[in-house]
Amino acid sequence: MSAMHLSFYSTFTLSCLGLAFHRTHLVSALLCLESMMLSMYIALSIWPVENHTASPTLIPLLMLAFSACEAGTGLAALVASSRTHGTDHLHNLNLLQC
């Protein structure tokens, strides 16, 4: 395993662990999701270069578009929850009370 693969795997794993264990604020959960998407985007962007393919694939561009949509949706949820509940703590959000 090369150092580049190790860095991608460790970045993705650390962001998954951050999402699993540090779930106090919605902002920290969104940042962990964005770091996961960023590591997947970089890995998919470098994959054609490592395989010596002539044409770059469209998958990294689609991944970047979905990541932007996910970020916009997450920020909209953050603004909505902070307006209705007054905070972005995840323990205050309950689907049964909405």
UniProtKB/TrEMBL annotation:
GO biological process terms on file: ATP synthesis coupled electron transport
Keywords (A to Z) from UniProt: Electron transport, Membrane, Mitochondrion, Mitochondrion inner membrane, NAD, Respiratory chain, Translocase, Transmembrane, Transmembrane helix, Transport, Ubiquinone
E.C. numbers: 7.1.1.2
UniProt xrefs under InterPro entries: NADH_UbQ_OxRdtase_chain4L/K, NUOK/Mnh_C1-like
Location(s) in or outside the cell: Mitochondrion inner membrane; Mitochondrion membrane
Reactions this protein catalyses: a ubiquinone + NADH + 5 H(+)(in) = a ubiquinol + NAD(+) + 4 H(+)(out)
Membrane-crossing segments per the record: 58-80
Gene Ontology terms for molecular function: NADH dehydrogenase (ubiquinone) activity; oxidoreductase activity, acting on NAD(P)H
Membrane topology: Multi-pass membrane protein
Superkingdom of this protein's organism: Eukaryota
Pfam families per the UniProt record, alphabetical: Oxidored_q2
Any one Gene Ontology cellular component term annotated for this protein: respiratory chain complex
PANTHER family: NADH-UBIQUINONE OXIDOREDUCTASE CHAIN 4L, NADH-UBIQUINONE OXIDOREDUCTASE SUBUNIT ND4L
Purpose: Core subunit of the mitochondrial membrane respiratory chain NADH dehydrogenase (Complex I) which catalyzes electron transfer from NADH through the respiratory chain, using ubiquinone as an electron acceptor. Part of the enzyme membrane arm which is embedded in the lipid bilayer and involved in proton translocation.
Family: Belongs to the complex I subunit 4L family.
Protein name: NADH-ubiquinone oxidoreductase chain 4L
